[in-house]
Design brief:
The chain is of the alpha+beta class and 220 residues long. It has 8 helices and 4 strands; from the N terminus they run αααβαααβαββα. A 4-stranded antiparallel sheet has the order 2-1-4-3, sandwiched between helices.
Amino acid sequence: SGLTEETYRETIVEPGLLRQKLQEKVAPGADVSDEAVAQAISENAERYDGARRSSHILFAPGDEAKAQEVLDKITSGELDFADAAKEYSTDAVSAERGGDVGYDVLTTFVDEYADSLSALNEGEVSGLVTSQYGIHIIMCTDIVSIPEEGVSSLDGIPSEIVDHVRMTLSATDSDTAFLAWFDEYRAAADIVVNDMPEDLPYDIDMSPYQQQDLGLPAEG
């Protein structure tokens, strides 16, 4: 409480942006090879194996009759799922993509959605699923399979997951390189910290300011 927009910008936003710009200059993200990405996916096979991609059609809460009508037409083959999403879904962003919302391993879904999706096989369509956002019809469009022995290449791995893993590895390499650079910079810097004069009529705790370097947290 009492944190003004100006103070927030000066103490949180601006130091964070300063660090980000400096890190981009002294420790840009390294190029990550396909082999490194494949190894990371193999090491995290439990996370990616069984990942499901889905599309949905979202109806407003209480619009169950319309949702059931659309579901019946999809089930009978009268209506294509992607076309139905474009025509009926209240989720305008995914509707433009035929209802596609990507892989569950890369997105956080509400429990009702996630539970219903986990029970679907590829190509299957759910019944009506009610969540805090309204009424969903969900279609599972892909299921990722990672062999027990892992993967030696990225063939068959969805590009969205490959890009996510590659970006994560690059960011981790950049963070590590930046911290190493900063430690070397600080060790080489000629920094003198003078003791506070004694017998002052006030006492100032300087510890919060001794680690203001680029917004990094104080060492504990």
